[in-house]
Amino acid sequence: MNIGLIIHSQTGHTLEIAEKLIPVLQSQGHQTTLFHIKAEKTNNGKAPQPLELPNLEGFEGIVFGSHVEAFQLAIPMKLALEKIVSLKGKVIGCVVTQQLKKPWLGGSWASMKMSKICESKEGSVKAVTSVQWSSNEKQELIEHAIKALAEAFQ
User: Fold this and answer.
1) CA atoms of 110 and 78, how far apart (whole Å)
2) What is the pLDDT of residues 37-58, one digit of tens each?
3) Calculated CA dihedral for residues 119, 122, 127, 133, nearest 10 degrees
4) Domain layout of the chain by residue ranges
5) Do residues 81 and 66 make contact, with C-beta atoms less than 8 angstroms apart?
6) What are the helix and strand counts (H, E) for the chain?
7) Residue pair 97/17 in contact by the 8 Å Cβ criterion
8) Hey, how many other C-beta atoms are within 10 angstroms of the C-beta on 26?
9) What is the tens place of the pLDDT at every residue in 80-133?
């Protein structure tokens, strides 16, 4: 399967998970392409702009990754996902990272929002996960996220 990893990472945490996931997916026989997409900074009161996503047509599977901002899915990723016309026939994995220790402080909501948007575009969401970066169990959460995402594409 040809899998695109569409990652919006401001601090590098979400990108780190994607980089650890790639060799796991490749060991399963998948081709992977990583897109690290950053939002333009807006300090002048302008509304955040959606991320510019690559053409998704050539991918049978997609991992969307983003961070949590103000207890919700980062607005540029949310706007970008909403602009997608269709994910029909694509296997989808979703991962979010957050600094706060508890998933109910934004991570659960953000990952479910990402999942719901993908489902509304007819994507087949097979994995939804979040990693709390300041948690004492961070390493276990990262391993769980990588395992869940890899299993989505088996």
Assistant:
1) 9
2) 887 766 665 666 777 888 999 9
3) -50
4) 69-154
5) no
6) 4, 6
7) yes
8) 12
9) 999 999 999 999 999 999 987 776 667 788 889 999 999 999 999 999 999 988
